[in-house]
Amino acid sequence: MAAGWNLEGRTAFVTGGSRGLGFAIAQALLERGAKVAIAARDEAAVKAAAGRLTAGSDAEGVLPVVADVTDADSVNSALAEVHAWQGSLDILVNNAGPQLAPTTLDKVDEENIASAFDTKLIGFIRVSQAALPFLSRTGSGNIVNVVGATAHALIPNTGPTAIVNAGVVALTSYLASEAAPSNIRVNAISPGMTKTEGWLTKTEAMAKQQGKSAEEVRAGMAKGLGIRLDRWAETAEIGAAAAFLASDDASYVTGQVLRVDGGLSKPVA
């Protein structure tokens, strides 16, 4: 087990776990001793991801689950399956959500933003509602929502994404208040520019168009956005932050948003 926060004996459920940040978070939880169920709509993709997570280790530590967060019946079935798998549930990570194409608000397609709300914000609510009856009341029960730096920093052409993310910030605070009497903590992580598969592909394409290397493109974006650490995050750094909030080391933390963005957002107070 990797050094860090000990999650031995804990069971986690991560939505959107077949790739990107969801996969990285699942990997971080698994490395720290948790049993991890990962969910995605694509059965082949989620099974392949489970195989990558358990390569060279105990395959019984990961459960691939097919679930659609826009469908309440699918979500309820998935949570029942996860609870039955280990007989317990300690950690829920709400991560599944679409990546909207860059656009200004005056040109955003109404159907696209409605779909984003349904998948991410309302999807987080659906999954949380289904998980709450199963989450441990002994102190290990907690929810970690994945937000995004657009909720805190003005980034050009990301208004639609920002609005959805801002809703998740509000959800985190309200749900933390409502879940506290059940001894369940609710927090969020808010990643900035991160080297996910999607962003690596995008920056490779941008590099070809601009006659630069992908690393040069990312460095230019880091400079343009004013990221204090002057670099993009590795996915493992985001996973580690989620693992911290899910651990007993964060036992007195609830209703908070941890900005894991290298200093992209710059709150004064």
From TrEMBL:
Keyword terms: Oxidoreductase
Keyword Cytoplasm in annotation: no
InterPro entries: NAD(P)-bd_dom_sf (IPR036291), SDR_fam (IPR002347)
One Pfam family this sequence matches: adh_short_C2
UniProt entry tagged with the keyword Oxidoreductase: yes
Family, per entry: Belongs to the short-chain dehydrogenases/reductases (SDR) family.
Protein known as: 3-oxoacyl-ACP reductase
